[in-house]
Design a protein that fits this description.
The complex is a heterodimer of chains A (about 140) and B (about 300).
Chain A: H1 13-26, E1 35-36, H2 39-46, H3 50-62, E2 66-69, E3 73-76, H4 85-105, H5 110-126
Antiparallel strand pairs in A: 1-3, 2-3
Helix pairs in contact in A: 1-3, 2-3
Chain B: E1 3-15, E2 18-29, E3 33-37, H1 44-51, E4 59-64, H2 73-77, E5 80-83, H3 95-105, H4 111-120, H5 134-146, E6 152-156, H6 164-181, E7 184-188, H7 192-198, E8 201-206, E9 209-215, H8 216-221, E10 223-229, H9 236-240, E11 245-252, E12 254-260, H10 263-274, E13 280-282, H11 286-294, E14 298-299
Parallel strand pairs in B: 3-7, 3-8, 5-6, 6-7, 11-14
Antiparallel strand pairs in B: 1-2, 1-4, 8-9, 10-12, 10-13, 11-12
Helix pairs in contact in B: 5-6
The chains are: A mainly alpha (about 140), B alpha/beta (about 300).
């Protein structure tokens, strides 16, 4: 799994790591039981402080997505917290309305919004596209 | 927690009646990374030189590992690594001679780390200091500052004047040292992206005092900038009177006000205090926060 961080993003770096790992788990790119890089390796790969990685991992662990096994490393939980489908339906609908309102105000039409969703789905399930790299 | 570096009410001026530092207090704990920020002339280098025993404070107290850097300079320097903004290395000596001198000065010198860093930076040991590029000279200085495995690393504007690739190499090495040695780091920088990468805590100097002293992530998440139309309030003091407002300044046809609090909280507070509706409040990266807190006013009349 490839993580990409931007120091000048609106989100602090540990939140960017949390979001990308959560997305990778949701999209199936990170499988239950899969091992995550160590604090040290990820910190050196991304050139960020080791404590920042630790903070992201600690928060993800508290949320039940990953678990640390002493001496073995950090792994994606075998059973990540599945949120209750019926319970999540209302907030997902709410988000969908917000999304449509934003898109319609920007002059987009429904098919374009659907295309945006498809693209987001591809990114979540297959990893972020490297569109900016080949300029 | 053990403090490795303590500043207590430090005062220092270079011109009578114009203190550069006017009561600065904070402490750096073992293994903690602290970014020292502030505009040019805010006193960052002065404070660092006081910590290194190169300047006396006019009042107040500095302690490094509980010792005074001016009374116990040897004991302090043995445990501190320091890279200055304008490192003065002996220009005529070779890198090999410079390294040999440091190895002689520091009994606990780590030759394995020395070789590793020299290889990584591709430093030619036979090169004379004066023939090194700025980036290489800074790398040589870093090598000399860390191979005795200091418990506290003090970096004054380590990236100043380096190209982006050299800056990144310097940062990568600092991160590696942080991983392997767990040293505390105090560094001053104008590169906010580097500060975000090194993380930890941010101490902002302004007007001779510590203006902000916060965990970086908390600073990012618990502060936001509200953009208020110019016509909505008469002057900056009205906004600064609202609870949690750190500073407001005019930027063309808006007021930009830095608030402590989440965007939702701040929006509600502005509504409650001033009856303002639909004010855009956003979390911003460190660079923007820095500019909003310390930047000058940008008036539409000035155009």
């Amino acid at each position: 799994m490839q993580l990409i961080i931007h120091p000048a993003d609106e989100l602090p770096i540990y939140r960017q790591i949390m979001r990308q790992i959560t997305e990778a788990i949701a999209g199936g790119r990170l499988k239950p039981g899969e091992k995550l890089p160590s604090h040290r390796d990820l910190s050196e790969e991304l050139v960020i402080a080791p404590l920042t990685v630790k903070k992201a991992y600690d928060e993800l662990e508290a949320l039940g997505y990953i678990e640390t096994q002493r001496g073995r490393g950090t792994f994606v939980c075998e059973r990540p917290p599945r949120q209750d489908r019926a319970q999540q339906l209302a907030p997902v609908r709410e988000t969908a309305r917000k999304l449509l309102a934003q898109a319609y105000l920007a002059g987009m039409r429904l098919p374009e919004v659907v295309e945006v969703l498809r693209q987001a789905d591809r990114e979540i399930t297959a990893g972020p596209a490297k569109q900016k790299e080949h300029v | 927690m053990n403090a490795v570096l303590v500043f207590q009410e430090i005062e220092r001026s270079f011109k009578r009646g114009k203190p550069v530092l006017n009561g600065v207090s904070f402490a750096v704990q073992q293994g903690e990374v602290t970014g020292l920020l502030g505009r040019n002339g805010a006193g960052k280098t002065t404070l660092i030189r006081i910590a290194m025993g190169m300047l006396f404070p006019h009042s107040g107290r500095v302690r490094v590992f509980g010792l005074s850097p001016t009374e116990d300079p040897v004991a302090v320097k043995r445990r501190v690594g320091y890279v200055a903004e304008d490192q003065v290395l002996p220009p005529a000596s070779t890198l090999a001679e410079l390294i040999a001198l440091h190895r002689y000065l520091f009994p606990q010198w780590d030759e394995g780390l020395e070789r590793q860093l020299a290889d990584r930076f591709a430093l030619d040991r036979n090169a004379r200091i004066r023939d090194l590029s700025k980036g290489q000279a800074r790398q040589a200085a870093l090598l000399c500052a860390v191979c005795h495995r200091p418990e506290l690393l003090i970096l004054d504007e380590p990236a100043g004047g380096l190209d982006p690739a050299a800056r990144r190499e310097f940062l990568e090495t600092s991160i590696q040292l942080l991983n392997r040695e767990g040293a505390a780091i105090l560094f001053s920088s104008h590169h906010m992206n580097d500060v975000e990468r090194l993380g930890g805590r941010v101490v902002l100097l302004d007007g001779g005092k510590v203006r902000l002293d916060r965990d970086l992530d908390a600073l990012r998440e618990e502060h936001c900038v509200a953009m208020v139309p110019r016509a909505a309030v008469t002057d900056a003091e009205v906004l600064e009177g609202v609870a949690g407002c750190l500073r407001a300044r005019p930027v063309f046809d808006e007021w930009h006000a830095v608030f402590q609090g989440t965007p939702e909280m701040v929006g509600a507070r502005l509504h409650q205090a001033l009856g303002l509706e639909q004010i855009r409040c956003v979390r911003v990266p460190l660079e923007e926060l820095f500019v909003e807190l310390l930047g000058s006013e940008r008036l539409v009349e000035a155009r």
